[in-house]
Amino acid sequence: MTISRDNTDSSQFSMSHSISFRRSWIFALVLVLATFFLAYSSPAQETRRLRAGYTSLSGNMLPLWAAREGGYFKKYGLDFDLISMPSGNEGMSALIAGELEFLAIAGSTTASAAVGGADVVALATTVERLVAFLVAAPSIQKPEDLKGKSVGISRFGTSIDTGARLAIQHYGLEPIKDVSIVQIGAVASILSAMRGGRIQAAILTYPSIIQARREGYRELLDIAALGMPYASTGITVRRSYMQQRRELVTNYVKAIVEAIARVKKDKPFAVDVMSKYLRTTDKEVLEGTYDISVTKYLKRVPFPTVEAFRSVVDELALVNPKAKGQDPKRFYDDSILRELEKSGFISALGG
Asked: How far apart are CA 200 and CA 72, in angstroms?
């Protein structure tokens, strides 16, 4: 009996030890698999190519294009697909939905989305004037002739829309009441709408303005020449994304700032990049776009400013009561640029 008990105890111990070993092995396997899953599965979104959108085929988008073509994204460990969006509204919708990580877009569209509750913020302003032109058919001989006519824009709520309202008000007319504002869609389609007689005037940017001049359309107003600070084009992200991925976002800003320095100093490179994205070899178009979009209006250091966003908020308040009284500072975060300035990164790029 004693021997039998000893054998039984030994057998039970052996079985218990075997079960314990198997449990430990299974636990270890689960732990390894869990670690593998966390290390490789959860950052799947991070290991895919990142996406940055741009909202018009204009010279204002050059810093983004140059950052890719000049290898500056890769320099800072980033791999991007650049996505062309038909207008600012579509681009903003894609950013909010997480389909884009970054967006080159007007401050007005960013502020409008933020007022509506979207988790978006501007990190930089690359162009601080509303570089756009009011262009009209030859039949429009003077500004008063616009009364009862239609001005074409891309979409309501975009900087092109703001440009139309500023231009109409500049001539003492009232948007909508005196002069209709018509949504056309993509900026590239606006000139076509003028040709077809759907609209009698339009807000155009470079390089579309050059083609319009060639076709005999009359330039009534250079809106940028009014001198109003305005957050025209810049970098916008989801605020939560910036908080979660600050190092990545900082590297993106570095790439854009370095690209700006390059296009300011290297005109042949800049023109080659524009030629690729604007899909033209037309020398007049490329030279004219460079002179306006880079030499004249592209900021070397793209700090957003209170003045530029105050203009945005003031204009937005005219069509959206929720914007009235809003602090311009809530729509931008310049902390990354401040850090880069303090570290000497910006000054090292030269001027």
From this structure: 42
| Cβ pair 223, 167 in contact under 8 A | yes
pLDDT per position as a tens digit, 122-145? 999 999 999 999 999 999 989 999
What are the C-alpha distances in Å from 312 to residues 179, 245, 291? Answer: 21, 28, 25
The residue assigned the tokens 């070899």 is 281
**Which residues on neighbouring strands pair with residue 83, listed in sequence order?**
53
Residue 227, classed as helix, strand or coil, is coil
HSE-up (13 A, CA, CB side) for residue 190: 38
Spatial CB neighbours of 1, under 8 Å, sequence gap ≥ 6: none
Is the per-residue pLDDT at 157 higher than 50? Answer: yes
- Give burial (CB, 10 Å; 0-12/13-18/19+) of 137: middle
Any residues with CB less than 8 A from the CB of 178 and at least 6 apart, and which?
146, 147, 148, 168
Token pair in block for residue 39: 């290390």
Closest CA to 103 of 112, 115, 91: 91
Q: From residue 280, how far is each of 47, 133, 236, 248, 276 by CA, in Å? A: 34, 21, 28, 33, 7
With residue 302 as reference, give the H or E element that holds it.
none
Q: Quick check: 312 and 331 in contact, CB under 8 A?
A: yes
Q: Which bin fits 344, alpha (ψ -120 to 50), beta or left (φ > 0)?
A: left
pTM of the model: 0.81
